[in-house]
């Protein structure tokens, strides 16, 4: 189909609040959503299961990334209390080489080009899910051959820069650049860095999805 994908999910405990969904649809390409429920453990996992069901339902209906987030936000009731969910939803049309991203208070997507250029794309266009009624905007990017697209939760950024994660994105971009244009090498490097960080201190849930265009 012109896109390869690899995902990693490393919960802080036996269950967690991070989630991801990747699906292929012949008429529109690859849809991918990565999200992070505030908090950890069983309570976060319960909210996560509700949100991912809503996301899967909206994606299956053919909704755009912005509409997927809007639907999940509308269905996230006050029953979750003070919890909220950040999420990024993307669609890759491999035929047109077009990336469309909508973002609900989540870290932006990272793009690595074969030239070595590494940059972020698709920053937050609305509030996290479950906070306020919100309509989400979409950003579009024309992808180049062999581009690597990386979506992650902030647990990865915190692992690179414990405990605040304030420099996490800067460090992530540097690591992605230094790995060369090799999606497998990037995945291995991220896992090594997270495992090394967990030897030194507890971490939040960590999730990322890497996709490469043919």
Write the layout of secondary structure elements.
Elements: E1 3-10, E2 18-25, E3 29-37, H1 41-60, H2 65-75, E4 85-93, E5 98-104, E6 109-112, E7 118-121, E8 139-142, E9 148-152, H3 154-160, H4 168-178, H5 183-200, E10 206-213
Textual characterization of the structure:
The chain is of the alpha+beta class and 214 residues long. Helix content is 31%, strand content 31%. The protein contains 5 helices and 10 strands. The protein has helices spanning 41-60, 65-75, 154-160, 168-178, 183-200, and strands at residues 3-10, 18-25, 29-37, 85-93, 98-104, 109-112, 118-121, 139-142, 148-152, 206-213. The strands form 2 sheets. A 5-stranded antiparallel beta sheet has the order 1-10-9-6-7. A 5-stranded antiparallel beta sheet has the order 2-3-4-5-8. Strand 2 and strand 3 (29-37) form a beta hairpin. Helix 3 crosses helix 4.
Features:
5-stranded antiparallel beta sheet; 214 residues; alpha+beta; 10 strands; single chain
Biggest sheet details: 5 strands, antiparallel
Count all strands and give the number. 10
Q: Which consecutive residue ranges, at least 5 long each, have pLDDT under 50?
A: none
Query: Which percent range fits the helix content?
Result: 25-40%
Distance between the termini: 8 Å
């Amino acid at each position: 189909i012109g896109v390869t994908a690899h995902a990693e999910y490393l919960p802080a405990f036996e269950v967690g609040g991070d989630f991801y969904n990747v699906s292929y649809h012949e008429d529109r390409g690859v849809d991918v959503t990565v999200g992070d429920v505030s908090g950890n453990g069983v309570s976060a996992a319960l909210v996560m299961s509700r949100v991912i069901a809503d996301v899967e339902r909206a994606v299956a209906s053919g909704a755009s990334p912005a509409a997927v987030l809007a639907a999940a936000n509308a269905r996230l009731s006050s029953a979750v209390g003070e919890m909220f969910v950040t999420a990024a939803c993307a669609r890759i049309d491999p035929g047109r080489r077009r990336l469309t991203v909508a973002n609900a208070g989540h870290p932006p997507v990272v793009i690595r080009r074969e030239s070595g250029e590494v940059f972020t794309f698709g920053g937050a266009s609305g509030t996290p899910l479950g906070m306020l009624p919100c309509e989400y905007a979409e950003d579009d990017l024309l992808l180049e051959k062999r581009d690597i697209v990386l979506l992650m939760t902030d647990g990865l950024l915190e692992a690179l820069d414990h405990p605040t994660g304030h420099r996490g994105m800067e460090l992530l971009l540097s690591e992605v650049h230094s790995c060369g244009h090799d999606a497998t090498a990037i995945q291995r490097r991220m896992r090594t860095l997270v495992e090394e960080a967990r030897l030194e201190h507890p971490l939040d849930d960590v999730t990322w999805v890497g996709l490469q265009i043919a």
